[in-house]
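Journal club prep, notes for RB
We'll compare a predicted complex against what the paper describes. Inputs for the NAP case:
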Amino acid sequence: MEYRNLGNSGLKVSELSFGSWVTFVNQLGKKEAMDCMAYAYDQGVNFFDNAEAYASGESEILMGDILKKLNWGRDTYIVSSKVFWGGELPTQRGLSKKHINDACNAALNRLQVEYLDLFFCHRPDPETPIIETVYAMNDLLHQGKIMYWGTSEWSADEINQAFECAEKHHLRPPVMEQPQYNILHRERFEKEYKEIFEKYNYGTTIWSPLASGLLTGKYNDGIPKNSRFKVKGYEWLADSIDDVNFDKIKKVNAIADRLGIKPSQLAILWCLNNKNVSTVILGASKVSQLKENLESSKYIDLVTDEIINEINNS
Ligand SMILES: NC(=O)c1ccc[n+]([C@@H]2O[C@H](COP(=O)([O-])OP(=O)(O)OC[C@H]3O[C@@H](n4cnc5c(N)ncnc54)[C@H](OP(=O)(O)O)[C@@H]3O)[C@@H](O)[C@H]2O)c1
């Protein structure tokens, strides 16, 4: 496993990490989720991603129980939470100081840890002044409840505003963004964030490297049974299938075949090739998927600039 600095910080994050969205609670019970986390950690993964919204807090409870059971040294792993969707009531949502504070305390309880390494604003909140959010995160940093704060799916303009507020009021700026980035979804990361990377060396923990599994090629002939697109509550994924560029997926899958690697591995290596990616967050509903995906790094030398260009132009 290789480790990269999280943006401008000194934190070394494994270039492949593991997240719990959809899978924990909905597809994986305690034993299966624990097997995945233990396998990932044994392979050098040091970052485990979560959010208050995942399975309405149950995902953090499950991860907390597993962390307790596995009893890893607290100085050997990085765990995150995200604030934005904490419940239905007006006080349980968004990025007000109150909700940020309540969400952080609730995540600490559910994960059974004394501090969060990374705490993300899960979306921008146009109804809360950015300065209030920056202050709230700065206060949590000072209280020792979080180590680094970040954004998720914020525009470059909103990220710039957070930096400007932080600088003006001598507060700690965000360190990392959590954006979607994969072969099918490139625009914001590569174009809109270009200036953000140059100005701030902003870190990124990218999500859905396989576009929820589409890039494995397993949806090329329809939605398979026991796949994410069949999970209750995620019907919107199946509803969006008509917009998927399957021609491109098939061409990229053929490049993987030619190289003698799995389509999932090529898709992950394509993400790792971008130096503005600090870590690629993997998702898996089985240890076997995690194994295949974590083995990607072995093939890094196969993915030359020519291959990257071929993928981008396919
Ligand atoms: N900040 C945000 O807004 C946000 C949003 C989404 C995700 N995230 C984070 O990013 C993490 C990763 O995102 P993601 O889960 O969408 O990643 P992904 O890699 O795009 O999708 C993972 C899913 O693809 C399928 N899969 C993975 N490897 C496979 C393989 N080798 N062969 C066949 N199928 C395979 C599995 O689903 P099935 O087996 O069920 O088909 C797996 O759960 C999340 O857990 C979460 O921590 C953040």
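Talking point for the session: The chain is about 40% helix and 15% strand.
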